[in-house]
Amino acid sequence: MSAELRKHIEEIVSLTDDEFEHINEHFKIKHLKKHQYLIQEDEHVKYMYFVIKGLLKATFTDVNGKEYIIQFAMENWWISDFKAFYQNAKSITNISCLENVELLSISRENLNKICSENHKMEHFFRVKNSYGYIALQQRILSLLSTSPKERFEQFSNQYPQLGQRVSKTIIAAYLGISRETLSRLSVKV
Amino acid sequence: MSAELRKHIEEIVSLTDDEFEHINEHFKIKHLKKHQYLIQEDEHVKYMYFVIKGLLKATFTDVNGKEYIIQFAMENWWISDFKAFYQNAKSITNISCLENVELLSISRENLNKICSENHKMEHFFRVKNSYGYIALQQRILSLLSTSPKERFEQFSNQYPQLGQRVSKTIIAAYLGISRETLSRLSVKV
After folding, report:
1. CB contact A73 to B (< 8 Å)
2. Which domain holds residue B26?
3. Where is the signal peptide (chains A, B) (predicted)?
4. pLDDT digits (tens, 9 = 90+) for A165-189
């Protein structure tokens, strides 16, 4: 029984104890240590994950070996290679742990099952997906229109916790700016 | 009665005639001419729109007057300032018509109503939102990791129609590359 998951779902919909217990049975707990991989490139992706504790990063590595950060996930965030997860395809990303993590996993089949069995869960994930869409649109706007300085300030304001838990090299890869530029900015801010 | 909307919804869920008729009643038709605005910056956004015919762009203008393209929308796409729409807030974007358009509008209240009345519609929009999320993640990856040349090639492959209907200046603003760079690329490709 995950109190964190229940609290997270109930920010959007209310559930009875029986409803939550049934939903909860479709999730499995998973522990990984810092540096371990949750998903590796080219694997079939069957699960998405809710983070109870810890921090992860999803990265894409280009042909030259350069790494780009697609997303972070910390407490109460969801993570997967969502394209591969939804489309039953192979991952193009690596997802690894920046800290020891405790996760809840749910398979695509079980996600569809709990959504189809309980209209409230379908609503919950519709709303969560719309929040996710909005957040990505903001990130695109930020990548297109802001200077490295503005981008770093936006990131620090939006995710004050992350700035403390993640190295400067990794933040730079997320923001699409060089490590050197970020160092200059973080001294000033 | 919009055959286009029904066909679009039924790509994901099947509806009876009565169900579709009831859903359809929550949409209103809207016509705008090329160059007209659908949403202007700083307006409250009450509707999202399904495109039956035509082409639109959503743009963000920075303090220096430079314009960035957040999204396009053509036949069978949805468009709005989604952040403002979902959060009942003011638009930060301008949405204008690149061609004469025919749209179906639905208010936030009616969207929630049809989703809550009909589980299939909640499912439809959950799935649509997940597709939207995936598409934006791909765009972020492209902005972070690809050269202007690769980005233009991806765009041309992904949206062959759009390349024919939109000016080079506008495509450049969407891809975050200069008009001059794009001109060099489009001659070569």
Report:
1. no
2. 3-108
3. none
4. 999 889 988 888 888 888 888 765 4
